[in-house]
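Final report, Chapter 2: Outcomes

The project's central promise was a pipeline that accepts a single protein chain and returns its three-dimensional structure in a standardized token representation, suitable for archiving and comparison. That pipeline is now operational. To close this chapter, we reproduce one record exactly as it appears in the project archive, with the input sequence first and the structure output second.
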Amino acid sequence: MAGGATIFSKEGDGSVALTEKQKMFVQEYLVDLNATGAARRAGYKDPNKGRQLVTNSNVLKAIQEAMRKRSKRVEIDQDYVIGKLYEITEKKASDCSESDLKYGNKIKAIELLGKHVGAWERRESGPADEGSEDELSRSLRELAEGLKNDD
């Protein structure tokens, strides 16, 4: 892999020992988070080996550390991503050809934010009143109505 930050520390500083092939797997895994593809690119004959590697505690620790270092290096974290998604949800959208933001993209941003806050998870107990609407559902409904009125 050309150019790139060192992912692994020297022995004795709490880092885990990995084989050269495992180190290559970790670097390749960061490309697309696809274990099978990373195993193939790292030179494993059986690409299914990737699924086994991501469950190996040493490899998993190396992946997590590499991701932490990358996040720090590029200054992108969960708060940044959520902030950008929120910005998209607040922008005006249109499906006309001149629009910078299409409805589908805005809806996808809303969907991703909804997943983040657990809006789509089933609740063990329903609302006290079957006719009641929780705050998030009400906000999403109002946002959808606002989108319809933008046309």
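Archive annotation: The first helix runs from residue 20 to 32.
This record, like all others produced under the grant, will remain available to the consortium after the project formally closes.
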